[in-house]
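Researcher: We plan to redesign the surface later, but first we want a full-length starting point. Tokens attached.
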């Protein structure tokens, strides 16, 4: 049986706007998006608050072959601290796509109402090897961003670390299946089924 948020945390769906062009980095986007979404991300009387969580970057084209490519981040809303839920979080699913173009400009597309109900995403303990992979997140993301910017694939060791990190990310994140449809070349390169 799936846990549902208390009724006071559920919000009414509104028609999301299309695409908004902007500039800036992911951190400033997140701060701005949370401000804009504040009225749409519900807060319950018992102070449960929704937050936005961005994904790692995903390349538009992969493998790169000499030409720079855009990257996209995604974000979804989640809430922690629901009563009787210790090994998961309540997720509203994939809501935003933030595309960083090769010229440095950015655009946000709202894919769905950020407060639509999806359900609980469970968590499992990571193995020792998986913890080591997760600790390389910043290094792996920088390797992917450098390849996207320059159009030059990372060296074989960095490519193997990148593959291990993203395969683990997809296996532990419920929104991964929604993202795969936008990045089929990358999923194929990773060896995902």
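Model: Full-length starting sequence:
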């Amino acid at each position: 049986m799936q846990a549902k948020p208390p009724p006071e945390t559920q919000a009414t769906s509104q028609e999301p706007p299309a695409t908004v062009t902007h500039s800036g980095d992911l951190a400033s986007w997140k701060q701005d998006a949370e401000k804009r979404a504040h009225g749409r991300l519900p807060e319950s009387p018992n102070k449960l608050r929704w937050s936005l969580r961005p994904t790692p970057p995903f390349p538009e084209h992969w493998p790169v072959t000499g030409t720079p490519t855009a990257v996209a981040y995604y974000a979804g809303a989640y809430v922690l601290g629901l009563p009787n839920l210790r090994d998961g979080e309540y997720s509203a699913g994939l809501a935003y796509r933030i595309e960083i173009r090769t010229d440095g400009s950015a655009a946000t597309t709202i894919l769905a109402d950020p407060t639509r109900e999806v359900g609980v995403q469970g968590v499992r303990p990571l193995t020792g090897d998986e913890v080591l992979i997760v600790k390389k997140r910043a290094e792996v993301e920088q390797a992917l961003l450098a390849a996207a910017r320059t159009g030059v694939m990372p060296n074989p060791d960095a490519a193997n670390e990148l593959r291990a990190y993203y395969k683990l990310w997809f296996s532990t994140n419920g929104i991964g299946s929604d993202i795969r449809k936008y990045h089929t070349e990358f999923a194929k390169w990773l060896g995902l089924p």
